[in-house]
Amino acid sequence: MTKQFDVAVIGAGIAGLAHAIAASRRGLSVALFERSHVAQAASVRNFGMIWPIGQPAGEWYELALRSRELWLELQQQGVLDLEPCGSIHVAKHHDELDVLEEFSELGTHQVQMLKPAEVLKRAGIVNSDGLLGGMYSPTELRVDPRTASARIAAWLQASGRAECHFGTTITHVKEGHLLSSAGDRWVADRIVVCSGSDLQTLYPKCLAEADLKLCKLQMMKVQQEPISRMSPHLAGGLTLRHYASFTQCHSLAALQDRIATNHPELDRYGIHVMASPFRSGRIIMGDSHEYGDAITPFDKREIDELMLRELRKLICLPHWTVCQRWHGVYAKHPTLPVFESQPDEGVHVFVGTGGAGMTMSLGLAERSWQRWHGHSQT
């Protein structure tokens, strides 16, 4: 007998998990499908940063803050562990300090400016050479990206909120029926496709017409001695030219011009440096951005060396032995925080959260379910 559900979610990365959570909170029966035996794509290959500070003022920033609330609810329910670590953008050049001061004066985000001594007090690993100051935001969270998705899926399964089918590739969807590569079938009233960077298996025409672009990023990890207190996420001045929240700053143009003139290699590979220090001593660092046809399976040593060069300007470490290197690939829409479409009756495509999947998915999925099924939750 073909098993029937109210909702089927295809993809158990953070976007798919967010939809499974939102549907189950409305008392709906949920089946969650993932082609891998564990989530292993973009949702586990990131900094573990919930990063509202990167979202532009208005609706997107408010959605990021709502996502933050939903992450904290998961912690309160014992699903996973979070650190309310906040973040510091570090300024080493006057044009970087100008952007941070202008951004702070706009009053659109919850931030405060810090003197150099205050930066070092909050984050002792910051490199003090040339330090002009920084900007603190209290809204950022840290989660272990390598365990968060698995823990959420295990909670959904154990609590009866969803029936999880890992190692199950859905190859065909038609009129509420789902077919796997093994020939198994399920039926659902509503199907949500959260296929991440896979733009070919399901609804390739729809996704091709969406102008989605794939992005590859390189990252690395170093292991230091455990630290006794929580450290904020750290971002260098290069980051100011990457996140949409800072585009409202007129002073950004001077910073962008300096980088383009003096360090075109950083623009060539979309390099901006960030570091997430865990209490265990693990520090996740990166990253870079290569798009479309520039993406290959092979990582570039030049990118790693450039990132390490810039990271040494941002932080000081007892040693710089890199114990792991990896890359991730995600789909990004050029203008929207996520691409949503309804290619068939009862089918919703939800992809393209870009590098903000951890930050935005819970809030974006909740917004979708408020539109589809109302506000009531259980």
UniProtKB/TrEMBL annotation:
Keyword set, alphabetical order: Flavoprotein, Oxidoreductase
InterPro entries reported for this sequence: FAD-dep_OxRdtase, FAD-dependent_OxRdtase_HpnW, FAD/NAD-bd_sf
Cofactor(s) this protein cannot do without: FAD
One Pfam family hit: DAO
Residue ranges of domain FAD dependent oxidoreductase in the record: 6-366
Domain of life the protein comes from: Bacteria
Signal peptide: none
Family the entry assigns: Belongs to the DadA oxidoreductase family.
PANTHER family from the UniProt entry: D-AMINO ACID DEHYDROGENASE (PTHR13847:SF286), SARCOSINE DEHYDROGENASE-RELATED (PTHR13847)
Name of the protein this chain belongs to: tRNA 5-methylaminomethyl-2-thiouridine biosynthesis bifunctional protein MnmC
Lineage: Bacteria, Pseudomonadati, Planctomycetota, Planctomycetia, Pirellulales
